[in-house]
Amino acid sequence: MHPHVSQLTLEEKAGLLSGGSFWKTRAVDRLGIPSMVLTDGPHGVRYQREDSDHLGLFDSEPATSFPTASATGSSWDPELVEEMGRALGAESRAIGVNILLGPGVNMKRSPLCGRNFEYFGEDPLLAGVLGSAWVRGIQSQGVGASVKHYAANNQETDRMRVSAEVDERTLREIYLPAFERIVCETQPATIMCSYNKVNGVYASQNRWLLSDTLRGDWGFEGYVVSDWGAVVDPVAAVAAGLDLAMPGAGESVPESIVEAVRSGNLDEASVDTAVSNILTVHDRLLADRPAVTPDHAANHALARRIATESSVLLTNEGSILPLEAGQGGNIAVIGEFARTPRYQGAGSSHIKPTRLDDALSAIRAMSDREIGFAAGFSFDGADDSTLRAEAVELASRSEVVVLFLGLSDAEESEGFDRKNLLLPETQRLLVADVVAANPNVIVVLSNGGVVTLDGIAGVVPAVLEMWLGGQASGSAAAEILFGAAEPGGRLAETIPLALSHNPAHVNWPGSDGIVRYGEGVYIGYRWYDATDREVAFPFGYGLSYTRFEYSDLAVRVADRTVAQATVQVTIENTGARAGSDVVQVYVGDVESTVDRPARELKGFVKVHLEPGERRTVTIDLDDRAFAFWRQGSWVVEPGAFTIEVGSHSRSLPLREVIELEVPTPVIVPDRDSTVAEWADHPSGMKALREVLSHFGPAAEAMVGEETLQMVGSMPLRTMLTFAAQAAPETVDLDEIIESLLSEVQQAGPVPA
Ligand code: BGC
Fold first, then answer.
1. Tell me, what's the pLDDT at 537?
2. Which of 24, 422, 447, 523 could form a disulfide with 407 if both were Cys (CB 3.0 to 4.6 A apart)?
3. Which residues of the chain have pLDDT under 70?
């Protein structure tokens, strides 16, 4: 317990459990407890000196606008993301921010989620590894992180009320592991609970989430802060494990907590624990204060490097890219986004950049070729036919066209979801007309959530996805176009051929306050693989300016009775340019008692290689790489597992099958377990047959070879009720069940 807890009055303690203002906690001057500043986040520091808001309406102090998470997710590069975390930490420290609200590690369940730009991707391992790196980076500067939004906040529609109805296995395997990894690896200062309900209970007052899982299972030592305005019942929230309700909303929260304690409706010990959690974290942040001076020029350069490392080259027919910067005919730069970049998302993460690079100026600065420009469309949705005609005219007299397309703030934002995956109609019309005038078109995209590329991919020779790439994304795009940098990103989410192919489609976005996660663990590529769907661009995919070959896969299992393996593989750059690729390792459980995805990403490493260079990389797989969640714990079943290695989820040229001889996990059956489940237990059936033998032959016949299949799905208690009717005398069923239970419990959950 923090030493100040015993010195504070109940009123002071209750006060510390909610904000003093929009971005600040309360101080207690007489004990020297300072007020601390928490602010957005996640891709830049949104520090507001004057009017405060969480919708991105009022201005904030200038800060580096780094690439958003949809970009950094595609970098697959934890070292780079950690570097970004350090830069964010330094900028936060310098401006007086103690806790930066991020990273966002929710899964991209549907590509329609308006806030997908703030999340890393559709795979929990990738999001967890990158989220951990982000937190390590920022916390190394004495600034706390706030990992959000915990949990199952995967849509904006009705986000403040909707109940995400998700089974526990799906939560444990898909929606929670990123949070779990970050907590276990980095002890983030805070976790931010989400607005929505999870299985009927608001996250802000969900004891299972905030206490049992977060602290009980994962050992979280920081504090839980509410999303801004997420607390519905402050007393229930504190009782469930919420520590700090934000923002400050006057005295109503402290008063209701004091009143609940006085009337015996809230245990004061819960208040003490929450105060102690908060003050302990704040002490740590105040003690841990390395000297930092942010270098905004260096951070701009870092933002550019991250943007190039995160950009995904989707197509490049005839190697049209990279372009020659020094010589060649006219280049037509078309699209309003080339002049007016869209580089960050709308909503609470919106910040004021220190600088802003636009692609048009960067292209002009980098190339000696003649560069023409036409806007092609406007952002206001007006009739763009004149702009389109000008663009077509420019395209027809140019050698090559670079066409900047994307989504605007009106099409994707925090607060609402997208309606479809298409680019706006005015842009699609523009593509068709420009291509007809000049087929040498390179499309450059700026968008947070993915767009389907009907009428674009396969029609134009090259498509480069820049995401919302931060304040330097314009110059980053120019570097890639001219080959001064490499498109280093790989997709962190599948681009489907059609919205209706998405696994969440029929359950999206729910109705009557409920959204059902009916697809279970089959999110993203797990679903497209299970249903043999063609996709536009698969998870993990992205082209390079060079080529890579994979060889010599060796999977070593030191001890088959332990679920661990070491994967070694050699990758060679067989092209003429330097470049990087992401070695991806997928694991599949060949035979399982539950339905499992054919393959799941369990390890990856980004490798940079000079032309002709070869490297052997090693990736360790621990027991979680083979496990699934069943009835309260992680289990690994013995048998065969596939290990597939390659450059994306649909290009896995190397494959090995390993056999694990781990002990068969045993479920101890109970009175509700079925006869089949009793039969699965090593001593369960023997004990059951023994009991039935006393009831006579008719009862015994119920579990004979031929009948077992028919009664297999009966719960034990039901089956015994029927069997007891054949008994020669009245039997005490409860007593019999108790004796059966004690027999199987002695065998224990783990067999010899
Ligand atoms: C968002 C959070 C953000 C908070 C403070 C909320 O509306 O969901 O992500 O950190 O506002 O701006």
1. 98
2. 447
3. 747-752
This prediction has a pTM of 0.96
Burial of 214 (0-12, 13-18, 19+ CB in 10 A): buried
pLDDT of residue 748: 58
Range of the structural domain that residue 614 is part of: 548-660
Residues 592 and 709 in one domain: no
One domain for residues 224 and 76: yes
Q: Is 148 in the pocket of ligand 1 (CB under 6 A)?
A: yes
Q: pLDDT tens, 435-457?
A: 999 999 999 999 999 999 999 99
Query: Is there a single domain that holds both residue 605 and residue 625?
Result: yes
Cβ of 156 less than 6 Å from ligand 1: no
pLDDT at 383: 87
Cis omega (within 30 of 0) for bond into 509: yes
Q: 229 and 362 share a domain?
A: no
Q: Are residues 271 and 319 in the same domain?
A: no
Task: Tell me the C-alpha distance between 312 and 647, whole Å.
Answer: 13
Give SS3 for 48: coil
**Residue located nearest, by CA, to atom 6 of ligand 1:** 228
Please, is 697 exposed, middle or buried when counting C-beta atoms within 10 Å of its C-beta (0-12, 13-18, 19+)?
exposed
Residues 116 and 238 in one domain: yes
pLDDT of the residue at 616: 98
For residue 498, the domain's CATH number is 3.40.50.1700
The H or E element spanning position 425 is helix 425-437
Provide the domain count of the chain: 4
Answer yes or no: do 303 and 405 share one domain: yes
Catalytic site residue 227?
yes
| pLDDT value of position 749 | 52
- Are residues 243 and 176 both part of a single domain? yes
Residue bearing the CA closest to ligand 1, atom 12: 54
